[in-house]
Design brief:
The complex is a heterodimer of chains A (295) and B (295).
Chain A lengths: L15 H28 L3 H6 L9 H11 L6 H32 L3 H12 L5 H19 L7 H25 L4 H8 L4 H12 L1 H17 L2 H7 L8 H11 L4 H35 L1
Helix pairs in contact in A: 1-13, 3-13, 4-5, 4-7, 4-10, 4-12, 5-7, 7-10, 7-11, 8-9, 10-13, 12-13
Chain B lengths: L1 H32 L17 H7 L2 H33 L5 H13 L2 H22 L13 H29 L3 H9 L4 H12 L1 H16 L3 H6 L5 E4 L2 E4 L4 H10 L3 H32 L1
Antiparallel strand pairs in B: 1-2
Helix pairs in contact in B: 3-4, 3-6, 3-9, 4-6, 6-9, 7-8, 9-12, 11-12
Classes of the chains: A mainly alpha (295), B mainly alpha (295).
């Protein structure tokens, strides 16, 4: 626990400044949570109720179930489909990014040749490039190269997972690289002497040791991919067969202009998975975010 | 030895392939298209020199977007750092349930820009306005999003709401790494709370402030998702005798230019964004290097 700011233990109880601090914190907390309360409250109302009084408690919480089923059974936006596509895209991208980046980072650390240093530098410096510079050429390039090898890259799950591997690997390799450097080489050397092949050394010895940093990589990339909008919009299209949650939410807001009962319910469903995950894995997520930023 | 070389190449291959296909090739195409008349449709692309760039300097909507993006970034840097610092002090103090509060303040960061844009659009256009009209609070009666001179500030507040919890985590990690004996000694010596913060805490946190400064800077400069769903660039205003969109930040300006099929112009704008970010990153690297020397 941190004992940085306040005085010693005896003074802890019933100090007036502590009461003020506590009240201030509660106020701040309510302010931070206010938008979420409003979303939940108004997701359980009809459109008329919201226009009539947006701050009041809903007349009946049953309306929440009605709104949710309205969204999932909507004829214009396949929300349920988008939900599953989002899960598939996020899970596959995370798997591919974690395994491939760990493999690449391991080679870049252990193989001390000019080309592995050069590769590492290339990946790290690419992190400066904003998405806007390459997003339109990327779409064109994915169409052209997809036609060339006769695999559809635009509008498909494999295509977007491949794109996420490209965009996710620089930061992930960077994070793995830092961690692998701290693993003593002796463990791998003794396995080499015992005649263990190099690929097996990685998967049997190194990869299990990476577990804590894999959690960090999964969290950083997971939050990004689940909420990402522009890349899916460009690669999958706004009304393609494969959709993601953020695209479905904008489709909803576009189709039901100012119908806040439906828009807010759709945002509630979009937020729910990540918040539920956060409640259960809070410790890891906070640790992962801090490690990812401080590097 | 031969086998280990094969493994090295195999292990880096997936990341390198994805990196080249998704980032490197589209990036160079992106730079190239910025000096052409590319329109996104025709295959006939002609070199036009720096014409696109010189046109930008005379384009009021781009100059305006560039200026408000800088203003927006500066407001964000101030707001986010102040709010995050207060939050980090609160959750490292000795108040009850501090870990609960810390977890709560971080929740907005988990919500994607698209979703939170709609939520805040609802809060600002409906909840606050209805509060204003019900209790006749004059300044709440018109939405902050509908006035050109308040919209940028409002977006910065929303962005602060999203990012403050994340930056708070970085500050907390930094505060917790300060030896507690340092603060205790000062408090025994009778130094008041405020001067303890000013003379011990802040200097010890310099590194965390550098991290937060550059994180805020780069994310604000590339802001898009929330801009799209919160304001979509509106309301209208005038700049250099031309109608412009009052809250159209740089990334959205690029997006709208490309949507209007002015692809080469959009590429030139994106290159300007890239150069701006490159300058910021180079400054960051030099600052960090300098600091390492001092330590």
């Amino acid at each position: 626990m941190s004992d940085t700011l306040k005085l010693n233990k005896k003074n802890r109880i019933l100090k007036p400044e502590m009461v003020v601090l506590e009240l201030l914190t509660i106020l701040l907390f309510v302010l931070f949570m206010f938008p979420f309360f409003m979303v939940v409250l108004n997701s359980a109302k009809t459109s008329r109720e919201i226009i009539f009084n947006a701050i009041a408690l809903p007349a009946s919480w049953k309306q929440l179930v009605t709104n949710v089923s309205l969204i999932f059974n909507n004829p214009t936006v396949d929300y349920l489909g988008a939900f599953f596509d989002s899960i598939l895209i996020t899970v596959f991208s995370l798997l591919v990014i974690a395994v491939c980046s760990a493999m690449a980072a391991w080679v870049m650390v252990r193989n001390k040749t000019w080309w592995s240093t050069l590769l590492f530098m290339a990946f790290v410096s690419a992190m400066v490039i904003p998405f806007q510079v390459l997003m339109y050429p990327l779409v064109r390039w994915m169409r052209v190269s997809g036609n060339f090898i006769n695999i559809r890259l635009l509008g498909t799950i494999p295509g977007i997972v491949f794109a996420y591997l490209g965009f996710g690997s620089p930061l992930s390799i960077f994070i793995f690289h830092g961690f692998i450097k701290s693993i003593p080489l002796e463990i791998e050397e003794s396995a080499t002497i015992d005649g263990c092949p190099r690929s097996k050394i990685f998967f049997k010895i190194v990869f299990p040791l990476l577990q804590p940093i894999i959690v960090t990589v999964l969290i950083l990339n997971g939050i990004w991919i689940w909420n990402d909008y522009l890349l899916p919009l460009l690669v999958l299209g706004s009304n393609g067969r494969v959709q993601t949650i953020p695209i479905a939410v904008t489709a909803f807001a576009g189709a039901y202009l100012k119908q806040w009962d439906l828009i807010l319910t759709s945002t509630l469903i979009a937020m729910l998975p990540i918040i539920v995950l956060y409640i259960f894995a809070q410790r890891y997520i906070i640790k992962g975010m801090v490690e990812g930023s401080i590097k | 030895m031969k086998q280990s070389r094969a493994v090295n190449i195999l292990f880096v291959a997936p990341c390198v392939f994805a990196f080249v296909m998704i980032i490197v090739i589209p990036f160079f195409f992106g730079l190239y298209y910025s000096v052409t008349d590319w329109n996104g449709v025709s295959n006939n692309v002609n070199f036009v020199g720096l014409r696109n760039f010189s046109n930008l300097a005379n384009s009021p909507d781009f100059v305006y977007s560039f200026l408000i993006t800088i203003a927006y970034t500066l407001i964000n840097i101030v707001l986010i750092n102040i709010v995050s610092f207060v939050l980090s002090l609160v959750v490292t103090s000795k108040i009850k349930r501090r870990n609960f509060y810390r977890a709560g303040f971080f929740v907005p960061y988990l919500i994607g820009g698209i979703v939170l844009g709609y939520i805040w659009q609802f809060i600002l256009n409906n909840i606050l306005v209805s509060l204003g009209t019900t209790y006749s609070i004059k300044f709440l009666e018109t939405s902050f999003l509908s006035l050109p001179h308040t919209v940028i500030w409002t977006m910065a507040v929303v962005n602060t709401w999203q990012y403050a919890g994340y930056i708070m985590l970085i500050f907390v990690a930094s505060i917790q790494s300060i030896p507690s004996s340092l603060m205790e000694a000062a408090s025994v010596d009778g130094a008041p709370f405020f001067s303890r913060v000013l003379h011990i805490l802040l200097p010890m946190m310099a590194n965390a402030f550098t991290i937060s400064l550059f994180l805020t800077l780069t994310t604000s400069f590339k802001q898009f998702d929330m801009n799209l769903t919160l304001t979509n660039g509106g309301p209208a205003t005038r700049f250099m005798d031309t109608p412009v969109k009052a809250s159209q930040l740089l990334a959205m300006n690029i997006f709208n230019t490309a949507t209007a099929n002015r692809m080469a112009e959009a590429q030139a704008k994106a290159v300007v964004l890239f150069v701006a970010l490159l300058v910021v990153s180079l400054i960051q690297v030099t600052v960090n290097k300098k600091k390492e020397v001092e330590m």
